[in-house]
Amino acid sequence: xxxxxxxxxxxxxxxxxxxxxxxxxxxxxxxxxxxxxxxxxxxxxxxxxxxxxxxxxxxxxxxxxxxxxxxxxxxxxxxxxxxxxxxxxxxxxxxxxxxxxxxxxxxxxxxxxxxxxxxxxxxxxxxxxxxxxxxxxxxxxxxxxxxxxxxxxxxxxxxxxxxxxxxxxxxxxxxxxxxxxxxxxxxxxxxxxxxxxxxxxxxxxxxxxxxxxxxxxxxxxxxxxxxxxxxxxxxxxxxxxx
Length: 242
Fold this sequence. Notes:
By secondary structure, this protein is of the alpha/beta class.
C-alpha cells in the first residue's frame, strides 16, 4: 500500500511532453473561475492546479455561495457572454476577465483582461502578478465568512458590518453562521435547532424566532424589506440573495 509520504509527490507535463516529479504543495492560494464552458479553459485550470492554486469552478455568475467564499482572484470568462449585472463581486477581490477578441479588450476600460485563448504562460504571468499584488492587502483567511457587507471571524467569534463590530450572543453568532454557510438554502426551525442545540433540545420552535428577531435588530435588518434574513413562509429562514 502506498504510504502518505510516498503520495506526497505530484507529476506535471514538461515542455517536451514527458512527465517530471514536483514537490507536494505546502501552501496554496485560491482562485475562483466562472465560465459557462469550463472545458474550454481546462488547460489553464490544470496549469493553475499544478502551480499550487486551489481552483473552484462555477458555471453561473449568480450562484449565491460566491459571496461567501474568500479567494485571491476571480476569473470571469466573458468570452462566452457571462453577465456581470447579476453578480455581486466583492470589491476586495481582484477580477480578471477572459475576453473573446481584441474589440472586447479595447472596450474593457481599466479592467484587467486577457483575450482567450492565449498562450498559457502569458495567462499565468498575468494571474501571478494580480495574485501577488493582492497579497499586500488584508486577506480573509479560511476561518472567515463573508456575506454582503458582513464579515464573520470564526476564530475570534467576531462579526463586522461595513467594518463596524456588532456584539452578538453565541447563539446569534452561530445562527448567522449557519444561515450564511448553507449559501441561501432555506432551513426549517427544526434544522436550525438541531444545528444550534443538538437533537436533545426539548424546547419550543419559538427559540429560533426569538433569536432571529434579536439578530435582525442588531443587523438593522427590516423584516418587511429584509437585506440579510428572509422569512420563508411555512418553512423557516434563509439569507437574502437580492
